[in-house]
Design brief:
alpha+beta; Aminopeptidase; 2 domains; ten-stranded mixed sheet; globular
Amino acid sequence: MTLDNTEIPYVNSIFQQPWWLNAVAPDRWSEVVLNVGDKIVARLPYTIEKKFSLTLLRLPPLTQTLGPWLRPSAAKYTNQLAEQKELMSELIKQLPAYDYFAQQFHYSITNWLPFYWNGFNQTTRYTYVIENLEDLDLIWHEFRENIRREIRKAQKQVRVRTDLGIERFLDINLLTFQRQGEELPYSRELVRRLDAACAERQARQIFFAEDAKGQVHAAIYIVWDNNSAYYLMGGGDPKLRSSGATSLLMWEAIKFTSTVTNKFDFEGSMGEAVERFFRAFGARQIPYFRVTHMSRRMKLLMAGREMVKAFV
């Protein structure tokens, strides 16, 4: 097992790195690793959560995807599928006993049939990705006109800063959840821990839009690895939403990440309003899988809950 803070190549994304999982789920994660000789050919990280008497294997906070990583294969396509079946089936077999499994697979995993054959269910979700950051003029051209208009408007009202720190970001992040009548879905301490881990590896940047009065209109938090950048968190002051600052920050983040990686992943959303905003940046819609499985005991509990709802 690889449970330390090293950077490893056996990943689909930054979210599968041991150091990331140590930050978001300290002492709560493990992994199944398959070897052929001295080579790792597959791995599947997971977090373990105990709730009442149930064992849950779910995604930790701020972690878009986990799922399996499989060694790239140069075999014929038909043989690749056979290898995927063998490796995924073995990964599933070696998972610890659980009542509920729920993970989102990185979009590079396009075959979930071995999980289906093992009794798992799947829901298709979507993210939006700018797949090539080399031509910024082309990227700008692909934006919807309303996004370009908001960016130009914001450029007249705010300046972009990257030096206000994680505490100021969390204050702005919280405002968005408060506007929706919700609390932060993660602790400030968890975000501080993750921010320290990312900053140590030069794998994050925080963008703020500040006006001449020192008011922060919006802020976004970006992380990246060698393959892609990811929009991880964001927030805005509800009183200053009309400035277009978030659109400007997204553009600045895209320009910046074009210097450090290859793609920009908006991390998607099944919320209609958020999807409309991400789509307006001209990114490609890409499906990925949410894969779940329940034990017999969990199924009975869920059926009982639905029955109670039906009679209330």
